[in-house]
Amino acid sequence: MSGPLSKYLTILDREIHYVEWGDPSKPKLVMWHGLARTGRDFDDLAQALSQDWNIVAPDTIGRGLSQWSPKPEAEYCYDFYATLATAFVDALGWRTFDWVGTSMGGGIAIRAAAGPLSGRIGKLVLNDIGPEINPAAVERIRSYAGKPPRFERVSELEAYLRQIYIPYGWLSDAQWRRMTETSARRLPDGGITTHYDPNMVMQFVHHPDDNLQWAQWADIDCPMLCLRGEKSDLLLPDIAAKMPKENPRCRVVEVKGCGHAPALNVPEQIGLVRDFLFG
């Protein structure tokens, strides 16, 4: 199998979209995206690893092509995301697998690895996320994620994304274009906005302690690699330094030239993930 193949599953009565890469006979790898993003953010990493892995990259409920939640207060939170992730891999028939999670996708993995997926994640890559995050960064993200903009043209959305995702580091023009086209949603009046349900930020309102996961962190029993963006305002240096002390299975590597979060789209960053998974 080449990739990506666009697929859908209905789990917990919610339709979830995902893309699949690689040969189904190969080892299994889940890639889970950040708060306001989609699984297509992993296209470059997935393509690079697809010769050796069978990869799935889902859109979280309320994002991309997945269904929006009819119960946003209850379902936009880590407990439900972890339950959904468990149902997702079960529906695929995957018993064990590795996991790469960017930002929220890593937060989901922390909750799941200490709970319903305990013992099933072989290796875990956390991309600029930990068991505690900077509240100021959360407010920064909420300021744009909770109020999606409206544009007349797709090109205007691209200019907007280029601005708010400067911390990702270097992206080619083609990669910015792909991000834009996989992030766009047409409004009833013909305008363009982002692909996600604005109610997803209810996680911060109705589940304010969701990102405090030190208790779960201590229970994770698989090898972990945390990639911290050198200029990240979300995963602060003192928290990153504390992570291996609270769970020695974790190793932290700082990624130069980017903030929150590394795009995992250039050879150096892809190599860090590959070397860890194959190590």
Structural topology:
Elements lengths: L4 E7 L2 E8 L6 E5 L10 H7 L4 E5 L13 H4 L2 H15 L4 E6 L1 H10 L7 E7 L7 H11 L8 H11 L8 H9 L2 E3 L5 E3 L7 H5 L7 H6 L4 E6 L7 H10 L3 E6 L11 H12 L1
Helix pairs in contact: 3-4, 6-7
Quick summary of this structure?
The protein has 279 residues and is α/β, with parallel strands linked by helices. The protein has helices at residues 43-49, 72-75, 78-92, 104-113, 135-145, 154-164, 173-181, 202-206, 214-219, 237-246, 267-278, and strands at residues 5-11, 14-21, 28-32, 54-58, 97-102, 121-127, 184-186, 192-194, 224-229, 250-255.
Please, could you describe this protein's structure?
By secondary structure, the chain is an alpha/beta fold. It has one domain: 3-Layer(aba) Sandwich (Rossmann fold), CATH 3.40.50.1820. The chain has helices at 43-49, 72-75, 78-92, 104-113, 135-145, 154-164, 173-181, 202-206, 214-219, 237-246, 267-278, and strands at residues 5-11, 14-21, 28-32, 54-58, 97-102, 121-127, 184-186, 192-194, 224-229, 250-255. The strands form two sheets. Strands 1-2-4-3-5-6-9-10 form an eight-stranded mixed beta sheet, sandwiched between helices. The radius of gyration is 17 Å and the shape is globular.
